[in-house]
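ASSEMBLY PREDICTION REQUEST
Request ID: AP-0331
Submitted by: J.K., bench scientist
Number of chains: two
Total residues: 494
Priority: normal
Notes: Please return the full assembly, not individual chains.
Input sequences:
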Amino acid sequence: MSDIPKDLRYTDSHEWLELQDDGNWRVGITDHAQSQLGELVFVELPEVEDEVGSGDACGVVESVKAASDIYAPITGTITAVNDNLEDEPDLINSDCYGDGWLFEISAADDAQLAELMDAEAYSDLVAD
Amino acid sequence: MTSAAKHTPLYQQHLELNGQMVDFAGWQLPARYQGVMEEHHAVRRQAGLFDVSHMTIVDISGPQAAAFLRRLVANNIDKLTTPGKALYTCMLNEQGGILDDLIVYFFAENDYRIVVNAATRDQDIEWINRQSAAFDVQISERPELALLALQGPRAEEHLCRQRDSLSEAIRMLKPFNALRDADTTIARTGYTGEDGFEIMLPADQAVTLWQALVQDGVTPCGLGARDTLRLEAGMCLYGQDMDASVSPLESGLGWTVSWDPEDRDFIGRTALAAQKQQGTTQKLVGLVIDKRTVMRTGYKVFLGDQQVGEVTSGTFSPTIEKPIGMARVSREVQDQCEVEIRGKRLAARVVRPMFVRKGQIQDGIV
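STATUS: Completed
Returned structure:
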């Protein structure tokens, strides 16, 4: 059974979002996603100030066996990326909701946030 | 997923160990249990256990068994002079293309066993039956036998503990040799680049041995680690690094072709001899990228602006901690080339495709 924190929002492509104090959204991949991928050995992230559209592939996480795209969960501008992942991609495996976060984004369209799933809806998705 | 998915005798064990099951050539097999990295390192440093019962075991016997095998495979089974000796070889079509790679075991005069790949089982059996029509031989598949691979520097001590009465014989067993004990065949062979054994035995005994080895601390390993280990060891995977469209000479497997004696007319010899004389246009090489990324099968290889080949197998090497791969490239590729990864070209070093053996990173790799 995977860990799905109550206070986060989720996408059907297994990213999570957390509102930061500065109003930006921090993004990572869920426990379910990291466990499906296995030990990650490489992460490619967007760059700060990149403009991304909701659903755009904006990065890659790779395990020994598989590469998986990371999708921008909302339209906006990248405001920060987690540089620690370059040398320690397995932070995503050990702490996907904490030190293993991927990037932060400022939302261009608040209406998109309403379309994200809550923990309950995401639990139903991964239970199938 | 089809309802006809096949299960090996160890299927229940895989479920109990929380194996992440995947389809491989119609078989349900574990991709991993705990994690590929952990399983990989266990084999390099201690001992790991693989269920490879999906592989196809075929006994070939009868008055013309030796004559048939001299014709069937590109390596020469006359090198097998003592009972138990094993030989790695390719089986070719008339054009010299590789139909499969396999191991031939010599048990006694005109009594041989071959082990072929699961993915090629149907066409192999059909081919072998067709080619054997002119020979007085019996071809019998042995689906009742399971196949376990116990690999790693501590494989020997673990196996000796489970087979006390055979421990002396197991210790004496040389690489590429097998011993038989009732229904069990223990061969000092493997697909990891480490010392180890491949053990063919009846299904019920395989379950007991599996459980005992795991109980004794051997790490169960899935297909993921099998792939990273064999790739580090520079061992080809059929269907990926070679297939019927390429010859052994284009696959780094020229050493498995036995040209002597000149009058041994193995299938594919004429075509292969012509290719050898003309010279091959492509070759299989190893690649290393000195940057953190992952090389994947199918990535394009460049020399300047020209595409000169393709990565046939790629991964992130757990031992070297760099991306490594095998690639089929044109003859002119020397020490350097570039690999295109998601639109970017990264410099790659061309190396002999043998990255790690017996726990040691080979010279020139890092």
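REVIEWER COMMENTS: The mean pLDDT of chain B is 97.
SIGN-OFF: pending second reviewer
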